[in-house]
Amino acid sequence: MAAAVSGAEVTAEGQEPLLSPGEEEEESRDVVESEEHCKSRWRSIWVMYLTMFLSSVGFSIVIMSVWPYLQKIDPTADGSFLGWIIASYSIGQMVSSPLFGLWSNYRPRREPLVVSTAISVAANCLYAYVHIPHSHNKYYMLTARALVGFGAGNVAVVRSYISGATSLKERTSAMANTSACQAVGFILGPVFQTCFTLIGEEGITWKFIDLQLNMYTAPVLFGALLGVVNIILIFAIFREHRVDDMGRQCKSVNSEGEESGVQDQDTEGDVDHVAVVAINFLFFVVLFVFAVFETIATPLTMDMYSWTRKEAVFYNGIILIVVGIESVIVFMVVKILAKKAGERAMLHGGLLIVLVGFFILLPWGKKLPNIQWQEIKNNSIPRTTYTEMVMPFWSWQIAANHTEPVGCPIMQSWCLNTPMIYLAQYLSSDILIGLGYPVCHVMSYALYSKILGPKPQGTYMGWLTASGSGARILGPVFVSQVYTHLGPRWAFSLICGVVVASLLLLEIVYKRLIAFSVRYGRMQEENC
User: Fold this and answer.
1) Phi, psi of 253 (to 5 degrees)
2) 283 exposed, middle or buried (CB, 10 Å; 0-12, 13-18, 19+)?
3) Average pLDDT over residues 505-511
4) Which residue, 394, 354, 399, 392, is CA-closest to 376?
5) What is the rounded CA–CA span in Å between residue 330 and residue 316?
6) What is the pLDDT of residue 4?
7) 219 with 24: CB under 8 angstroms?
8) Half-sphere exposure of 299 (CA within 13 A, CB side)
C-alpha cells in the first residue's frame, strides 16, 4: 500500500488520495490549496475588483461635464456630435474586449491588464489637453473618449481571471462582488465630478506644461492617477492563480516563475456553444433593456408630467442614485439567494421582474398628458430632440436663458391620443427594474463562466462584454426612434416582447445551462 501511494500528496484531512500509480504523475498538479496560496489568490481578486471599479469610474466621472467642455473647446460641435462622443466609449470597449480576452488566453494576464490601464491613463491625459489644438478639438475629444473605452475592454480579462481563480461555490459570490464594484463606480463617478466643480471653470493654469486644471480636466486627471495606482498594484500584488471547479490548486509555472494563466487541467469535452450563444443573447437583452430604461427617463417624465429640463434632470438624478444603491444591495443579497435557488432560477426570476417593470409602464388610463401648444416667434415648437434622447439624462444641459414650454410636444402626434403614464407607475417600474437588472447581470456572468469551465475564457468573456457594449449603443437608438414616432405604448410593448422572447429562449436552453464539470460528470449539480 505504501508503494502504491509513494510520492503522492496527502490531503489537508490527513487522508491518502485515491490515486493509482499511473495516475500520480497526471494528478500531481492538482493539490489541496495552501493557506498562503488562498491569501495571495484573494488579494489578486481584490485587485481585479479595483480594476473593475476604475473602469466604470472612467466612464461616469466626466459624463456630466462633456457637453459644456465640448462647447468651450470647440464651438462648432453640435448635439449630434455629443451623441457620438458618448457612444464612442462603448464602441471602443466593444472592439477591444475580444482582443484583450484573446491576449489573456495565451499570455500572462498582467500584460493586457497593464497595457489596457496604461491606454486609459494616456487617454485621460489627452482629454485634459484637447483645448490645446487650434482646430478640430472635438475630434481629439472623440478620440480620447474612444481610447478610454478601448482601455475599459480589460473587464473581459478581469472576469476571465476571476472565473479561473474561483471554485464553482465561490464564483457566483465573486461575480456579484465584481458587478457591485462596477455599479459603485458608476454611482461615485458623478459624485467625484460634482466635488471637482468647486475648482471652477477657470481653475488653475500651469503654463510650463500647458495644463488647465479646472472642473473639466481635474476629474480625468484624478482618473489617470487612480489608473497609475492600479498599475502599481497589478505589479506589486497581482499574481496568476488558478483553482479547478472543486477548489483544488492547479499548478503550472510559466517562464516568468508564476502560475500560468493558461488552463492545463483536464479539459476533455467541448464547450456547449448553444448555451454560450444563448447567454450572450440573454446578456444583450439585459443590457439593452437597461439602456432603454436609462435613456427614456428624462424625455418620458418631461412629456408625461410637464417637468422642465432642470426638474427632469434633478428628479431623475435622484431616482438613478436610489436605483444604483438598490442595485448594490441586490448584488450583495443575490449571492446568498443563488446558493439556495440556483443561478438559472434566479435569472428566470430576474427577467420576470424586468418584464413586469416594463409592463406596468404601458398607458392604460383615460387622462391625456398636457400638450405643448405654445409656438415661439420663429414658429418652431420646442421639443425633445433625437440627440437629447439618445444621450444619458445626466448629460443634458439646462437652458436657463429662456422660458421653456413644458408638456408633450404636439409634433409627437401620439401625444393627442395616448393616455399619460401615472407617476406611481413610473416609480414602481424604477424599483422593479432596479431589482431585476442586477439579478440578471450577475447570473448571466456566473452561468457563463461555469458553462465555459476550464477552457481559456478570455475570448469568450470578450464577446460577452462586446455584446453588452453593443446593447448600450443600440438600446438608446431603438427607443428614441420608436418613442418619438410611435409613443410609449409601442416602445414598451416591443420591449416586453423582447423580454418574453428571452424568457422563451431561457426555457428552451434551461437544461443546457449547467457547469462544464457537471455536464461531463466530474461534479454533481448543486442548484447550478
Assistant:
1) -85, 130
2) buried
3) 90
4) 399
5) 20
6) 41
7) no
8) 28
> Per this entry, what is the length of the chain?
528
Q: What is the dihedral of CA 263, 269, 274, 276, to 10 degrees?
A: -10
Residue 211 pairs with which residues in a beta bridge?
Answer: 206
Nearest in space to 147 (alpha carbons), one of 67, 214, 227, 68: 227
Q: Are residues 42 and 172 in the same domain?
A: yes
Measured between alpha carbons, how far is 457 from 160 in angstroms, rounded to an integer? 5
- Helices vs strands, H then E, count in the chain: 17, 6
CB 130 within 8 A of CB 85: no
Shared domain for 226 and 143, answered yes or no, is yes
Q: Which regions of 355-478 does DSSP assign to beta strands (E)?
A: 371-372, 408-409
pTM for the full model?
A: 0.74
Cα 87 from Cα 395, distance rounded (Å): 12
Phi, psi of 494 (to 5 degrees): -65, -40
Least confident of 159-168, 397-406, 426-435: 397-406
Pairing relation of β-strands 211-213 and 204-206?
antiparallel
Same domain, 325 and 357: yes
Q: Residues 411, 313: one domain?
A: yes
Domain C-terminal end among 249, 274, 305: 249
Residue 188, all three cell numbers: 461615485
Same domain, 301 and 218: no
194 contacts: CB under 8 Å, gap ≥ 6 = 64
Q: Is residue 17 part of a domain?
A: no
CA 317 to CA 297: how far, in whole Å?
A: 10
What are φ and ψ of residue 47, in 5° steps?
A: -65, -35
Split at pLDDT 50, 70, 90, the class of 396 is very low
**Whole-angstrom distance, CA of residue 465 vs CA of residue 286:** 12
pLDDT band at residue 256, thresholds of 50, 70 and 90?
very low
The domain tally of the chain equals: 2
* pLDDT number for residue 325: 85
- Could you tell me which residues are beta bridge partners of residue 372? 409
CATH number at residue 210: 1.20.1250.20
Residue with cell 458587478: 179
Which residues form the domain of 91?
Answer: 34-249
Give residue-wise pLDDT tens across range 49-62.
988 888 888 777 87
Tell me whether residue 24 is in a domain. Answer: no
d(CA 430, CA 319): 8
